[in-house]
Amino acid sequence: MTPATTFAGQKLALFGLGGSGLATVRSLLAGGADVLAWDDNAGSRDRAREQGITVTDLNDADWSGFSALVLAPGVPLTHPEPHWTVGLAQQAGIPIIGDIEIFCRERAALAPEAPFVAITGTNGKSTTTALTAHLLRHAGRDVQMGGNIGTAVLSLAPPAENRVHVVELSSFQIDLTPSLDPSVGILLNLTPDHLDRHGTMENYAAIKERLVAGSDLAVIGVDDAYCAAIAGRRRGERIRLHVEGHGDAAGDYVCRAGAVRGPDGAVIAEISGIQSLLGEHNLQNAAAAVAAALRLGLTGAEIAAGLKSFPGLAHRMEPLRRIGPTLFVNDSKATNADSTEKALLAFRDIHWIVGGKAKEGGIEPLAPLFDRVAHAYLIGASSDAFAATLDGRLPFTRCDTLEAATAAAAQAARASATDAPVVLLSPACASYDQFPNFEVRGDRFRALVAALPEA
C-alpha cells in the first residue's frame, strides 16, 4: 500500500466505495488524514463498514472544512450531469481529485524521479500496460502494475527510485488528476467512446491529451486524426507510432511486416510468430511497450526475450484451445466495434459470436470485414439491431445466450471445409445486459470451450 502522507492532518470527503475507493480510504487513513466516506449504494456502504471503515452521509457534512473531494472515477464529473457531491465541492471551492492524483502527489514528495509509465487510449491500453510491465519484470526490475487494469494504484507499493510503476488510465481517471506527470506517457489511439460521460469527442480527446502533455517522453500513435493532432501539438520529447498503410508515414516508429522499425528502417523488435500478440493492432501495442522499455534502460536482447515470453492478456485475443483445426479465441474485452475490428483483421473463416449492450454505431463500421466471417451468432440485447445490420450481407443465427452461440459455432466450425476455422468471441458490445463485466463473460466462454469434446 502507498500511505497518502501528503494529506496528513487534512480532512477529506470521499465518494465511491468500490474497490479503488476502499483502497483510497485505507491509504488516506494510513497517511494520517481524516476521511468522511460515502456511497449512494447501500451495499457498498455495508461492505465498507464490514472492513472497519466509518461511513458518513456527506449530505449532512460541513463542506467548508474539507481540503478536497476524492471522487471515484465511475462517478460523473461533468456529463450527463455532475454528481451531487461535485456540486457541493464546487460550492465549497475545494478541488475534486481521484486516487491517481493522490499517487502523483506522493511520488512528487517521496521520489520525484521514480519511473512512472502511464498508458491510455480507447483500445489496446490493457495489453500495452501488461506487456510493458512484463518486459520490465522479465529484465529483473521491481515493477508495480495497476490502475484501470485491475489493482488500485494506492494498493501498490510506494514510489521509489528503483521501482517502476506501470499504470493504465481511463479518461475518467485522467480527468481527476491535474498534476499527472509520468516519465513516459503513452497515448495509443482515439475513437468515439464514453461520450455519455464527456459530451463530445473533442472533450474526450482533450482529456486523454493531458496524459502525454505532462509527460517527460510522449509516445503517441498517429493512425487517427485526433492523436495525429495531439502529436503535432506536443512540444516536448516525443515518439510517434505509425502502422504502415495508415496515417502519417513519417512516424518515428513504423510497424510493418511483423516488426517494429525505427526511423532508419532497422528492426527494433520482432513480433511475428508470437501467439500472444496476434493482429496488426498488437504491433502498435508492442511498439509502445518497446519505446517505454528502451527509455527505462532495457537492452534489445532483454526486450526480445520479454516479448517471446509474454503470456498475453486474458480476454483480449486470447487463444483458448484448438479442437482439430478449429481455434477458439476469447476476445471478450472487445466492447466496441473498433476493438472487434482488430480481431476480425487477424483471422479468416470466422465463426463470430457477437452482441450484448451495443455501443453507438453498432457493428455497421465493421461491414468492410464481413467477408472474413463465415457465420455470425447473435447474443444479448443487441440481437434485433445486429440482425438488421447483417440481413442480406452475412449469414447469422439468433442464439440469445453465450451458451447456445458457443455450441452452434463449435458445431458449424467442425463441419467447415476450410483448413483453419476460428470460433471468435468478440462481442463489439458491453456485457451489462447478461454479465456483470467482460471478465465474467470471457470466463464463461472459457469454461464452455473447455467443456467441449475433442474432435
UniProtKB/TrEMBL annotation:
Subcellular location: Cytoplasm
Any one cellular-component term (Gene Ontology): cytoplasm
Pathway membership, UniProt: Cell wall biogenesis; peptidoglycan biosynthesis
Binding-site list for ATP: G121, T122, N123, G124, K125, S126, T127
InterPro entries: Folylpolyglutamate_synth_CS, Mur-like_cat_sf, Mur_ligase_C, Mur_ligase_C_dom_sf, Mur_ligase_cen, MurD, NAD(P)-bd_dom_sf
Highest taxon of the lineage: Bacteria
SUPFAM superfamilies reported in the protein's UniProt record: MurD-like peptide ligases, catalytic domain, MurD-like peptide ligases, peptide-binding domain, NAD(P)-binding Rossmann-fold domains
The keyword Cell division is assigned to this record: yes
A Pfam family of this chain: Mur_ligase_M
Biological processes annotated in GO: cell division; cell wall organization; peptidoglycan biosynthetic process; regulation of cell shape
Role this protein plays: Cell wall formation. Catalyzes the addition of glutamate to the nucleotide precursor UDP-N-acetylmuramoyl-L-alanine (UMA).
Entry's family note: Belongs to the MurCDEF family.
Protein name according to UniProt: UDP-N-acetylmuramoylalanine--D-glutamate ligase
Originating species: Methylorubrum populi (strain ATCC BAA-705 / NCIMB 13946 / BJ001) (Methylobacterium populi)
Gene it is expressed from: murD
